Amino acid sequence: MDMDNRKILIVGGSSGMGLALARRCLDAGATVVIAGRGEAKLDQARDELGRLATLETAVVDISREGEVAALFERIGRFDHIVSTAADIDGAYRLLPEIELSAAQKVVESKFYGPLLLAKHGAPKLSANGSLTFVSGIAAYRPAARGAAVAAVNAALEGLVRALAIELAPIRVNAVSPGWVDTPIWQLVAGDAKDDTLAAMAKRLPAGRVGRPEDIADAIHFLMGNGFTTGTTLHVEGGHRLI
Ligand SMILES: NC(=O)c1ccc[n+]([C@@H]2O[C@H](COP(=O)([O-])OP(=O)(O)OC[C@H]3O[C@@H](n4cnc5c(N)ncnc54)[C@H](OP(=O)(O)O)[C@@H]3O)[C@@H](O)[C@H]2O)c1
User: What angle do CA 18, 22, 23 make, to 5 degrees?
Assistant: First the structure.
């Protein structure tokens, strides 16, 4: 898709899939705003991406309505809004050990965040614009310790279907990734990250785990395909088959 003169907001653009998507959109000629809570992380991503003429950063916590509203007041109109944001710190625990506050952060970052982006962002979108959110394989292949994440991913996909009706003709979609090698795995598996991902790679029909670029590719498709809305696109190397 030619993205010349397109403006794209990527919440989560300072890391992992969002960072890969930012690179992809900048390569295609878009103007990109990457957003997240951590200013230092955003600055580092900006240095990595370069192209300062077409790249902006914005500090925002999408679980806070005032911050989301202020972001859209400040940065104006958009063609596409994407969120890859997730705060899963402390959420991968067995039920007896999980703190409610950690589960709430998952809900706030992956469910209320997208809801607020839709509420305050949709009025700023062009008529052929889109919203794309990121759910995940945990909704389909839940594992012990992952109940909060599994539930939120499923809820987000329901939200996407409802928003696709309410916000039409703006399109609203989700990408559901399988296991993708990004910094989030440090929180999920710690020092066991590499072994855990390597073991999954052997089991998957695709023969490898995902790369951030695989997901960026899928989001790029959803932004550009004018006949796709209310859909969840699974990009998981065959994970639902095993
Ligand atoms: N990696 C996988 O294997 C995998 C599998 C299935 C689904 N997913 C989903 O894919 C998405 C992207 O994951 P990733 O692996 O790319 O994660 P990541 O590398 O940890 O990136 C997450 C990004 O979200 C931002 N963020 C978190 N909470 C936020 C909030 N409240 N407001 C604004 N920004 C926030 C983070 O920046 P700050 O911390 O600075 O805010 C960071 O830029 C997530 O929804 C994740 O649940 C990942």
Answer: 120
- In angstroms, the Cα distances linking 19 to 27, 42, 43, 46, 106 are 12, 10, 12, 9, 20
Q: Which of 198, 194, 221 is nearest to 209 (CA)?
A: 198
Could you give the CA distance from residue 128 to residue 141 in angstroms, rounded to a whole number? Answer: 34
pLDDT above 80 (res 120): yes
Helix spans in 53-136 (H): 65-75, 100-107, 113-121
**Residue 174 CA, ligand 1 centroid: distance in Å:** 14
Ligand 1 pocket test, candidate residues 14, 15, 141, 219, most atoms within 8 A of CB: 15
Over range 122-130, report the average pLDDT: 94
pLDDT tens digits for 76-116? 899 999 999 999 999 999 999 999 999 999 999 999 999 99
Domains in the chain (CATH in brackets) are: 7-234 (3.40.50.720)
